[in-house]
Amino acid sequence: MNMTSDNTARLLIDASYLLVAFLFIMGLKQMSSPVTAKRGILWAGAGMVIATAVSFAYPGMSNYILILAAIGVGSAIAWVTGKRVAMTDMPQMIALYNGMGGGAAAAIGAVELFSGEVHDTVALTLAVVGSVIGCVSFSGSLIAFGKLQGLIKKSYRFGGQQFFNILLVLGIIACGALVAMGGASTAITSTLFGLALLLGLTMTLPIGGADMPVVISLYNALTGLAVAFEGFVLQNAAMIIAGTVVGSAGTLLTQLMAKAMNRSLGNVLFSGFGDTGGATSTQAVTGSMKAIEANDVGVMMAFAQKVIVVPGYGMAVAQAQHKVWELTQLLQDRSVTVKFAIHPVAGRMPGHMNVLLAEAGVPYDIIADIDEINAEFETADVALIIGANDVVNPVARTDKSSPIYGMPILNADKAKNVIVIKRGQGAGFSGIENALFYLDNTRMLYGDGQAAVAQLIHSVKALG
User: Fold this and answer.
1) In this predicted model, what pLDDT tens digit does every residue of 263-295 receive, in sequence order?
2) 442-446 vs 367-369, strand pairing mode
3) Catalytic annotation on 390?
4) Which of 3, 92, 162, 191 pairs as cysteine with 148 (C-beta 3.0–4.6 A)?
5) Which class would CATH give 294-462?
6) Catalytically annotated residue among 211, 275, 390, 399
7) Could you read off the pLDDT of 102-144 as tens digits, one per residue?
């Protein structure tokens, strides 16, 4: 009777996991478009709810009170922080939550390895690999969070750092092999986890803030892989499916982000580019920045035929996206064509600008990526740059000594007039001087992004 009951339960679980797989895959598919992204999140979320509920039906399950308590506490924390976090802080929240996923996978591996109940060599090997990847993702994501939050204000490097990292990897491989062969002591297993956590720190600390979008994407992929490996150990199909989907999507996104910067993943991880003030270039920037008043910009835009807005992290910091949309509507009422140009690495995480513009209500059909919009800058009367820097820097085309040489950029400099809203005359997040600011067709509108756009709105309204 019990055997029949167990078999029935497993059949129901397997059928439910098939539904979960469908919801995860379809949810991810819909997340690829801003139009259907919200629906995709709901579908994937429904899949996760089903997978969690079905887990309670596993034969031999126990500790229901502890499980429910953990789910309740975790859900409450996530709900409160998700509601309170500002849109500008979304990248660091994603980095933090991604790290929690890696840490959870590592914790599952720790339970399996320290319990001594797993004896199969394949299962032990997968548990080791999942634990190591989870630890690296956990500690690395915490450093990424610290950098984005401003808690860690510089990159830390020391002589022989790469050699030290190689020694850490060799130590992890040695300890991991001993654990996978079975019979490893608690000390060796603890050393394995300690070395993996340390590797995440030493890998991420030298990486500059300008590379954080790629790093976040990479650690997202690692978290997915860690979950998938631990799913094999537990023979849990939902974990395998979810981890594989997240891992593959994160890997593809990481490749796309690196390609958008015209750099290899190895260059991102080991070059140290992106450390503020650390980038250098042999090509001198000539000329001077020329200021302009908001009233003059308002008149220029009001009587333009086409305006292309290039948002960057400065728009996010100033929380100016709602004002930008209000300005856009005013210009559209005057029959001005307005489009938004999005660079893949604008902001501090993949899709950062798209999220901000969607929050403000900007229609998706006037938001274009770099390939769609670049040819249009030559016919634009005004290119309005709000907080973007490296993604519009022309030295990426001309200066072979520049760290961003070869990176595809938005051709904002080819517009008839370029208006840059900027707080001051300092270099951007990567520390590279922007030659765009010194061009003859560029004017600088100094001030806070939201306040500056508000002045533009007032100027356009004054024209009637």
Assistant:
1) 777 777 766 555 544 444 445 566 788 999 999
2) unpaired
3) yes
4) 92
5) alpha beta
6) 390
7) 999 999 999 989 987 777 889 899 999 999 999 999 999 999 8
